[in-house]
Amino acid sequence: MRLAVAIAAMLAAVSAQATAGAPDAQASLLEQRGRMPAEFREHLFGNPLTVRVELDGQYLGDAEVLLHEDNRVQLIGFVESIDSPWPQSERTRWAEQLAEPLPLGICAPQCRGLAALHYSLANSLLSLLTPATASAEQRNIALPASGSHGLIVRNSLAVHGGQDQPASARYSAELSGSIGLWSTVGSYQYYAQPGSTDHYLSALYAQRELGDHFVRAGYFLPTFEGIIRQPRAPGTQNDTALGVMFGSSDVLLADTRSASVYPVYVTANRDGVVEILRDGNLLATQAVKPGVQEIDTRRLPGGIYDVVLRVIEDGQEASRETASIHKPSRWRDPTRRWRYSAFAGQQRSLLDSDRSMQEGEIAAGAVVNYLLHPRAVAGATVQQIGTRRATGLSMDWQASDRFSAYTNFYTSSDAGRGVDLQGLYRYRAGSVVANHARSWAEQRHRLPASEGAPPRWETRGGWQDTTAVSITHRFSHRDNASLRVARSSGFTRGTGIDVSYGRRETLFGRHDVNWRVSAYDRPGSRFTHYRRQRGIDLTVSVSLGSERRSYSGSLGSRTGEAGQRDGYVTAVATQRVDGKILRSVNGMVTAERSGFGAGAGAYLQSPLLEGDVQLYRAAGSGHVGGSANLDSTLVIGGGHAAVLGQGRSGSVDTGIIVDVRSDFPDIKLRADDSRGGGVQLRPGRNFVPVTAYRAGRVQFDFHGRHAPAAALQPSTISYHLNKGGVVHTTVDVLRTFTVMGQVLDADGNGMRGVQVINHAGRNVSQEEGFFTLELSARAPVVELRYPNRISCVLTMEEGRHPREGDVLMVGGIGCPPSVVAH
Q: Which keywords annotate this record (predicted)?
C-alpha cells in the first residue's frame, strides 16, 4: 500500500508539471501522440525508437523499443550503456522481462518484477520502477513465497590399512535439504574395523527461519545456534536428543551491516561533504546539509575505534572533530541486546549401534547472551542431560583496540568445576596471548604383538588443566618468531616450551625460499617412558623451475619411543599435474635411526569426486601401508540429479543444476552469481552454488575473450531458495548466423512494424520492410508477428539462400495471404 501511494504521488507530481507544459506522466501514448506535430504522429507506433532507459532513477542504457497503440511498450534490445552504474546482468534481465509487451503505468502485483513503467515522448525516456526502492526499510528479507525443494548429500569415505595393521574404514553422510519453507539437516557416521562396527545418526531435524528467530524440531546434539559467545559447559554434548529448539537468528536480516551503538553527529554550515578517517586513512564520505545531522555508520567496518570527521565546504576544511565508533564484532544489530537459544526433549538415539544408558531421560538447556556494553558481552548457560548437569557463565570484554579478554566459569557433573581465562594483547609487530583452560587430553601408544595378538593402538585420556603464554613477533616482513610456555597438571604434568624462528628469502631473484628452525621441551608420556620429549627441527621449502613444482626438506632430533635421541632427515617433492583426474603428485623419503622410509601420494579431482591417496613404507618396521580419503556430493532438485567433485563438494548448501546443450562440443561458459561467486560450465550437467534465502540472479556468458557466433538461451536465470533448495534449468548454446530480408504485404510492398522473432534473437522490420536478425542454425525458424497480432512461422535454412559475406540474404518474405487476411 505504501508503495502504491508513493508511486501515485510521484506520478501526480509529474502530472502537475504537465499542466505547465511538460508531458503528463499518467497520459496514455495516444494522448501524448495527440500533442505531437502531425508530421511525426504516424511514426510513433510500429517503428523501433531509440530511447533512454532508467531503472529506479539511474541510467540503465539506450535501447530500441516498440510502442503499441494499446498503451503497451516492448523492448527489442539495448544498443549502448556507457557510464551506466548497472552491471550488464541487469540489462540482460530487463531485456528478457520486457521482450513481450507490458502495459505502461502502475503495475499489478504480478508485473515481471516492476512496480510501474512510464514513457515520456518529450524526453524519449522509459522509466522502470521496482518494488525494491520502497521495501528498503524492511527489517527482514522475505522467504520464497512457495518455499523450495531439494536435497544435497555430501559423502566422505576414509580407508586406512597396511601390513600387520588391521584395515579400518569410515563413511559419513552430511545432508542438507529443503521442504517448502523448512530446511533439513542430517548427519550419519559409520565405522568399520576388524571385530566391530559402529554407526550413529547425530542429526536429523528440520529448521525454519521466522524473522529474528528460528525453530528446530527433530534429532540433534545439544549444541546451540543464534548466539554470539557460548559459555562452555563440558560433559553434556555427547548424545542426541529428540525435541525442539528455539532461538535468535540473523539469517533473514535485510541489511547485514550494523550501525554504531552510539550515534555519531556532525554539524555543517552549508552543503558539503564529511570525510571519515581512521589512522589517516579514508573510510567513507557522506554528503551533509546545513545543521546537525547523524552520520550513516553502517558502511564503516566493525569494531570499537576512534575516527576523525573532516567537514569540507566549498573545497575548504570547515571543521575537524574526533568521534568513537562502537560496532561490536559479530553483533550485527546492537539494538537487540538479548540473544538466546533453548531446547527441550528426551535423550533418544536413531540408527545408533551403542544406545546410551540414559535413553529416554530428559534433555533440556538454554543459553543467553546480553550486550552489557559495546565492549562487553555476557553469557550464561544451563543444561540437564539425563543425570548430567552443567552450568556456565562467561564475559567477553574488548577493553581496547589492542586488548581483549574472555572469562568462563563452569561447574559440571562430569568435569567438576573449572575456569577458562584468555587475554590477548596486540601490538604493532605481534601479539601476546595468555590463557588457562581445562580440556580432555588423549594419548595413543602402539602396543607390540604378543601371544598371537597383532600390534594395536591403545588410547588413554583424562582431564587436564593447562596454563600457557604465547608470544608471536614479526621482526620484518621476512622474519617472524614465536614462543610458547605451558604448565600442565592432571592427566599430564610438567612445563613445556616451544620456540621457533622463520624467514623468507628470495633465491636468484625469483624463487621463494622459506626456512624455519624450531625446538621444544615438553613433559614426557608413556610413549617415551615418561622421559621428557625434546627435539629440534630445521625445515626448508623452495620452489624451483616454476610454480608447478616445489621441494622441501627437514632435519632434526627428537625423543624416540624408549626415550633415546632419534635423528632424522626428510625430503619432499610436489609436482602439479593438472590432468583430467590427477591434479598433483608428491613423493617423500626419510631416514631415521631405525631405518629408511618412503612414501608417494596423489591428489585427485574430477567432476564426480575429489580426494587424496597415500602409500608409504614405515622407517622403523619397513611395513607398507596406505590410506585414501574421497569426497563426493549428490545433488537432487527439480526432477534431476547431479554428482559433484571439482573442489566444491564441501561447501554446497543451495544451488542450481544446469544442463548445457551446445552446438559447440568444446565450449566453455561461465555462470556468475549476482551475490558473488562463479563457476565454469561445460556441455552436459553442471552445478552452480548460489546464495540461500536471498533472491538473486545467475548470468551465463562465454568464458574468455573470444566468443563464437552463438547465442545463449537463457542468458540469465533468477532464483530465490531456502537453504538446501535446488532447482534445474537448461542453457542452450545456439550457433547463429545473420539473415537480411524484407517483409512484404499481399501486394508485394514492404511492410514496417512486423516483429521478426527467433529464439536466438528478435527485430522489427523498418521502413520498406527491411530487417536483419541473428538466427539459430539448430532451429532456423522465424515467427512473423503483425501489428494486428496475426502471426505465422517460416523456416530459413542456410543452404537455400545466397550469401553475401557472413550475411544470408533471404529476400522478400511474408505470411500467406490467407493468414494475413484473417
A: Signal
Residue 786, CB half-sphere, CA atoms under 13 Å: how many? Answer: 20
Pairing type for strands 655-662 and 726-743 reads parallel
Which class does domain 654-822 fall in? mainly beta
388: how many CB neighbours lie within 10 A of its CB?
A: 20
CA atoms of 721 and 144, how far apart (whole Å): 6
The β-bridge relationship of strands 196-210 and 213-220 is antiparallel
CATH class, domain 195-254+337-427, is mainly beta
CA dihedral 662, 663, 666, 669 (to 10 degrees): -40
Q: Give me the residues paired with residue 501 across strands.
A: 481, 517
Q: Please, are residues 268 and 370 in contact by the beta-carbon 8 Å criterion? A: no
- The residue length of the chain stands at 822
Q: Is the pLDDT of residue 613 over 70?
A: yes
Tell which residue, 238, 239, 236, 231, has the closest CA to residue 410. Answer: 231
Cis-peptide into 714, omega within 30 deg: yes
Q: Do 383 and 236 touch, CB atoms closer than 8 A?
A: yes
Reported as a single tens digit per residue, the pLDDT across 624-649 is 889 999 999 999 999 999 998 865 54
Give the whole-angstrom CA distance, residue 346 versus residue 386: 9
Distances (CA, A) of 736 to 214, 547, 659: 50, 41, 20
Q: Which of 75-89, 112-126, 141-155 has the highest mean pLDDT?
A: 141-155
| 3-class DSSP string for 396-442 | EEECCCCEEEEEEEEEECCCEEEEEEEEEEEECCEEEEEEEEEEEEE
pLDDT at residue 116, rounded to an integer: 82
Judged on CB neighbours under 10 Å (0-12, 13-18, 19+), 319 is middle
Map out the domains of the chain as residue ranges.
2-133, 195-254+337-427, 265-327, 429-448+474-569, 654-822
Q: Where are the beta strands (DSSP E) in 508-559?
A: 511-522, 533-542, 549-559
Instruction: Enumerate residues 6+ apart whose C-beta is below 8 A from 90.
Output: 55, 60
Q: For 99, left (φ over 0), alpha (ψ -120 to 50), or beta?
A: alpha
What DSSP element (H or E) covers 33?
helix 29-34
Q: Which pTM value belongs to this model?
A: 0.76
Amino acid (one-letter) located at 149: H
Helix, strand or coil, per DSSP, at residue 386: coil
For residue 734, give every residue at least 6 positions away whose Cβ sits within 8 Å of its Cβ, in sequence order, or none: 663, 710, 711, 712, 713, 759, 760, 776, 777, 778, 779
Helix residue spans in 55-175 (DSSP H):
88-97
| Residue type at position 643 | V
Kindly tell me if the per-residue pLDDT of 588 is higher than 70. Answer: yes
Contact 171, 159 (CB under 8 A): no
How far is 116 from 136, CA to CA, in rounded Å? Answer: 17
Q: How far apart are the first and last CA of the chain?
A: 44
Residue 14 has pLDDT above 70, yes or no: no
Share of the chain above pLDDT 70, in %: 85
Contact 32, 22 (CB under 8 A): no
Q: Are 407 and 395 spatial neighbours (Cβ–Cβ below 8 Å)? A: yes
CATH of domain 265-327: 2.60.40
**Closest among 80, 108, 76, 111 to 95, alpha carbons compared:** 76
- The mean-pLDDT minimum among 241-250, 288-297, 384-393 falls in 288-297
- Could you say which DSSP state residue 258 is in? -
3-class SS string, 295-355: CCCCCCCCEEEEEEEEEEECCEEEEEEEEEEEECCCCCCCCCCEEEEEEEEEECCCCCCCC
Provide the phi-psi class of 507: left if phi over 0, else alpha when psi is between -120 and 50, else beta: beta
Q: Which residues contact 286 (CB under 8 A, 6 or more apart)?
A: 273, 274, 276, 295, 296
Beta carbons of 812 and 801 less than 8 angstroms apart: no
Q: Mean pLDDT for the chain?
A: 81
For 67, the grid coordinates are 510502442
Asked if the domains at 265-327 and 654-822 fall in one CATH topology, the answer is yes
